[in-house]
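Notebook entry, structure prediction.
Reason for the run: the old model in the group folder had no record of what sequence produced it. Starting over properly, with the input documented here first.
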Amino acid sequence: MKWKIIIVLSFCFFLTGCWNYRELSDLSISTGISIDKEGDEYKVGMLISNAQKIQGNSKEGESQTIVIDAKGKTIMEAIKNIELKSPKEVYIRHLLVVVVSEEVAKEGLNKILDYLFRDPQSRKMFYIILARDCKAKDTLKILSPLEAFPSQSIAINIEETYDLQAIITKVTYNSFLKELLEPGKEPYINSVMIDGKTEEGEKEDNVKQTEPDAAIRMSTVGIFKGDKLLGWTSKDENRGINVLNGNIGLMYLTFDYKESPTTISLSTIKTKTSVKIKDEKPIIEVSITGTGNINEINQKIDLEDPKVIEEIEKATEKELKKNVNKGLEVAQKTYKSDIFGYGSMIHKTYPKEWKKMKKNWNEEGFPNLEVKIKTDVVLEHKGSLEKTIKEEIHE
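New structure, fully documented this time:
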């Protein structure tokens, strides 16, 4: 009996081994896709990596990446036209980013989402990002001296900015689709801009200079209603939105202390946001707690005085609340888009009341929703010095 089992297992091993194995050199591996609009057609670009250069077999002068684009009435048609230009099969299993132009986003993302959902190669874990004040294709052409591919540079920039500044969020295909399909919740997406001239940034010389001629920069987020882009936010509004959603890594605040020209830079290491619905009216109560470090002070302040520390904590809470209110206002009053999911909370807590509200939620319910915000910040560290450098010099 044992030998029969061994034979069956061996046979299964040979059947399931590498039936779909393909050589790297036989594929055009795409790590980034751009989607623009030209007339009535989509113009899709694919960032293709040079497998020969990765393996060290390339000829001198060959580029590490190339962007191939083509037009089509649908995303699928455009990609099939790209394949006519590529000598190898296009493979998107390792896709890192999909960059969408502002024009396309304002018309709606449903067609793009639908294609990517149906594509069996796609892992659905790539970032979706908007191109602001530039073509989506151009963002995939800017070479960076720090990363091998522009798509990789964008993906890492998203992660680092999220971890260190709290002005953006991590929006993958899966997370965007989840928010889009959730009742009472609207999505928002990060954007990138190009600093400098695109034509200079796509040259190999751009990576050889200490000061590149062009670079990709993270910008603010775009707020959506359904699958359509409504408009942009500011950095302070971004920070407030992410704090309200409890969706930040590390953040910093810079503000004036008291009425003097003293400016304090403070990093808030941790923030925790809890949200409650008070009653059926409803009223939303948001409690934000955080701990922070003092990083920089430009005037003489006695950091050994507990009263001074308490005053700085209160000033920090005030600044944090100001940012949060800006984020709330841009969503409620400017765009009337519930990007916080308060409607979803009401739907789950008071389903009967939600049935009456959901039809006009974004137009009437959400803009008039009462949201009470409470902030509480504790300063844990004052840095390496008990006094400022200015105090030390004075003494």
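Summary: Residues 357 and 365 are 7 Å apart (CA to CA).
The old model has been moved to the deprecated folder.
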